[in-house]
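User: Before I run my own analysis I want an independent prediction to cross-check against. Here's the chain; please return only the structure tokens and, at the end, one sentence I can use as a sanity check.
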Amino acid sequence: MDLDQSSLAAKLQSANALGPNPANNLQSEAWISQQSEPKSYLDKAVGVVFSNEKIERNIVEAAKTGSVFLNGKFGLASSLTLYALDQIKVGDSLPQVAIDAGLGIAKGLAMRSLNQTVGSADLGIAGQAFTLGTGSRLLDSGLDRRTWTDGGSGSFDLQGGQSRLYSTLTDKSALAVDLGSFVVGGTLSAGLNKLTENSLRSSPFFRTVLTGGVFGLATGSTSEIRRERDSGQALNIGKIIGAGGEQALFSAAASIPAGSQASSSVRNTYWDSHGVRAVGEKGVYKFGFRADGAAQVLFEVPASLKNLKQASTRLNTLSEQRQSDLAQTFGISFAQAGEAVTFKAGPGFTTLTARAPRLNELVAMENVLRKSQPGQLTLDGKNGVKFNFVQDKDAPHLGFGGLFEFHGAQPNIFLHNELNQSKPITERDPDALQKYYDERKRNSLEGIATHEVAHHSDMKVRGLDPALESSIRENIGWHRFRDGDFYEFDTHLLKGKDGAFYRFGHFDMSWTRSDAQGTPIDLAGKPAPAGSEVRLTNEEMISKALVRPISDYFNNPTEMLMEGFLNFRVGGANRAKLLAESPVLYDQVKLQDDRELAAHYGFDQSGLSRMVRLPDGSLAERNAESLAAISNFEHKKPD
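Assistant: Structure tokens:
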């Protein structure tokens, strides 16, 4: 509308002479002339794709709504950017752009803060949408440069701004819209809860999307009221409801990413700390995890933000109780969260900060201790293994999955179980990433810990019966060709089916054909000049070995034996695999296991260990029944 200032002033003066009338056409023209806004840069950007101005505005408002509900750095950056671009108008001067950008950023921050506050208060869908709608309306007015600017002089107008802000606050039509949105939101949520047996109450996804939709209903309706007033039209209830409904659909759709994020956030609230998922189901949150080949539910609570937060205390109590139970039952201990732990893996010592074991990990530890006993105890029974769990952030810098060490008289095992590796917790759990590892299932936490406890068992038998320990290594195909350290690195050669010996190279992870002294030889048995050695890969060596290793970790006799113990003590399918694929290794593991059992529990009248390890890994008295169970297992024909 083109009115020069003198014409406009004359018409206003004439109109004022007739008395104040909000519906007067001349006053409407003055309002539009002074208050109508050019497009924002966000409008202009959306308009490049959508030529329809109504759809354009719906998308702008929906995008801002979606960003407010989105958490994290991306959500924050999106809110600040979108609100700032929607505040800055095309054609503004540089100072105006700077002011409006600041106001837009402040508006985005305020809306996010308001959303987080009302969300934490757990007001429900209707309450949250009502608060956001009212708050958004006040922020739109209070953080608008034009609210505090005199329309005639362009100067700062505190009194006028306060008056305009008060008018916004007390606008009966807008308040009616806010109240109507509250009623609609409450009715919708109550109806959907009834229809879905309270599932909406425990669904962060649908709660977020519905809240965004109800908020859009309020903003869309309010925008239509403003449009009709600015254009001097009478309020049209049908158009107001229609505009609100349209905006509700757009805003609900824009809230879908935030809904997915909210659902994931609730589900994983206690995953890092306790290994526990929170799953919503018919008005409750169930807390549990998958381990030992089945879903394990710990407890459930009515779905609410308060109960979700309070679950932390309950999970902490469960974790402490289970650790205490394992300690009392098996005589072991766990490093506490925040405790400094030190291990030697190389020329010096490394000190790290321990974490508490997660609840799903404690399932694996119970299996390990039940099936490995008495491997967790020293011979005198006075000291038990101390388990030290390494924090996930430190795991990538370590060269081991598990490590056994003595610290004085205290046997220590260091373990790391990174959640982002998605390794199985127990041997009965699938490996979600198995297809990425050449179809080879990775060791579970149960398997790794069982391997490490077996190192302690091995140490005890070495001290008790060094001749037996030495003969077992020879019987599984290893030949000592020189003295070395305890871990037997580069002290033994592995015998092949071809009668030759093979020496492991730790630098290139390959095996070199050699004589009994470790000197490389060719296929004719002659010394092999440098560069012409006969080399085998680890995979080739498995099938070439006189006694077949049960896994690909057999770089020395101790590790090959410990992998045998892993499968023998885990029991079930693992023990059956050991027996089928490497019967000699099976027999030697069983022989050494019996020696440790005898040292702790004594011998029977026939001079054999009083206790035996059953096929499932548990212990039993040596009698006709237990021996029959073992015999039936060992002589069972394959299916």
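Sanity check: The radius of gyration is 37 Å.
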